[in-house]
């Protein structure tokens, strides 16, 4: 395991003629929690999706735990990885979405067991034990046989976290995990994430929860217009933003 | 009042009210009852229906026309033809739908052309066409295309690039021709149904599955298709029932082992027309009823995890557990 979990070097991404990421540089060390802040449309989601190669980048490099994402470098030339190799890289990266994206036709337990059983082909009994333990950990031990449609938003998001953890990822990506939740449900999801952070999970979290960033974050990135405007220790950036745009944004969300 | 609230709150009396009257409904029901009675009267009193011809015996020493050997054989053929052609239709339909949605232009155009062609050609024409394909080719085989022409080009006489071939009449006569005509035509319709189903599934589902490291095939098989089934099953039920009746078209291929052909044969021999039609109608009714029951269970299976009823049932179960008691419900659910 290398010390640096995520390294982004000069990442560019365009959709057609719209350039969304204009050279992102970022380093997240193993065990760190990196919070990403920024106004809507600044490219936060896009960057996160580039990290696990859900989007192909146009220029730059992204390394996760030392592996170049999506490509193989041989003789100074880049070769695109096949579907199978990309899938293999993604296995060790968990992702949690704003809209949960649980599989509605499966029970909570099946949701959590699906990927370890099908993708990693682990034994069903082992996976079941682990899944039940994970669901207990996120406080849903009693809901294993429910369908996602029968759960509240907060419960669904906790299942989604358990589902990602079941693959034993070394990195977790969160894309505004609490933005679709009623205010009184936000806390239960953040508690699970804090618990994860305490356990030493490396996390990249796009969020508007300043309190969470200040309390749990080791690093804060402020993005605007496809570039990293400012970064540093969360407390310092929040208390004393150096850049005008950061100041303007923080004054709106605080 | 006030002392009530200090102790446990009493459950209020159940409401006993006179329900709203619906005189219009009763009038409608009365009219329908009279019409039904008239219909039954018509069926039982008119001897020309010849029920015994249909059910008991149509000739001396023979069973009723519905249950004679050739007709039962025909029934078997009809069911077999429905199953096989729908299997081809659904299997090929899924492949075509996936091709149609592929980002690869060539694949999606091929799927489009297929759908365009087979939806445009009437099934009856297709059935007759397939029955006569052996006029075009004496042998049907599988191998290199243009093998003879390539052989000629290099000066080899009778170069044979066929790996496997059989006589066309063996393959394309009768049943197989009918099955292919119906199945290939059905695939075009199923492709559209499956495509609509696949597109109805939220893009986030694919994204979540891919992010977990699932392959594209696994995503389709485990995540997208099962959810698409909710949209796919009802129109597929329609298609299957339509197919049961369209199998009668293969009488023109011609295929003898089919219900309509066999009943017609009886009719031609005995000069009895109407009761034979009624016998056909009864068999088609029975098959379609069975299919509708099957569809009901399929829809229930793929409806798992959806809908207010599931949610309400779960709530009820939760309350039951909390109260440690039992709430009686009418109707048993999954
Ligand atoms: N698949 C796509 N095709 C075209 N444009 C896209 C696509 N995905 C994102 N964009 C555009 O890229 C820009 C950045 O989007 P992104 O979702 O990364 O922003 P964000 O910072 O996550 O915003 P939000 O806070 O609203 O989620 C937006 O202008 C968006 O319209
Ligand atoms: Mg976003």
TrEMBL record, chain A:
InterPro entries: AAA+_ATPase, ABC_ATPase_HisP-typ, ABC_transporter-like_ATP-bd, ABC_transporter-like_CS, MetN_ABC_transporter-like, P-loop_NTPase. Residues 6-250 form the ABC transporter domain. GO terms for molecular function: ATP binding. PROSITE patterns: ABC_TRANSPORTER_1 (PS00211), ABC_TRANSPORTER_2 (PS50893). Pfam families: ABC_tran (PF00005). Keywords: ATP-binding, Nucleotide-binding, Transport. Belongs to the ABC transporter superfamily. This is ATP-binding protein. It comes from Paractinoplanes deccanensis.
TrEMBL record, chain B:
Keywords: Amino-acid transport, Membrane, Transmembrane, Transmembrane helix, Transport. Coiled coil: none annotated. SUPFAM superfamilies: MetI-like. The chain crosses the membrane at residues 26-44, 79-99, 111-137, 171-191, 271-298. PROSITE patterns: ABC_TM1. Its main location: membrane. It is found in: Cell membrane; Membrane. Residues 75-295 form the ABC transmembrane type-1 domain. It comes from the Bacteria. It is a multi-pass membrane protein. PANTHER family: L-CYSTINE TRANSPORT SYSTEM PERMEASE PROTEIN TCYL, MEMBRANE COMPONENT OF AMINO ACID ABC TRANSPORTER. Belongs to the binding-protein-dependent transport system permease family. This is ABC transporter permease. It comes from Paractinoplanes deccanensis.
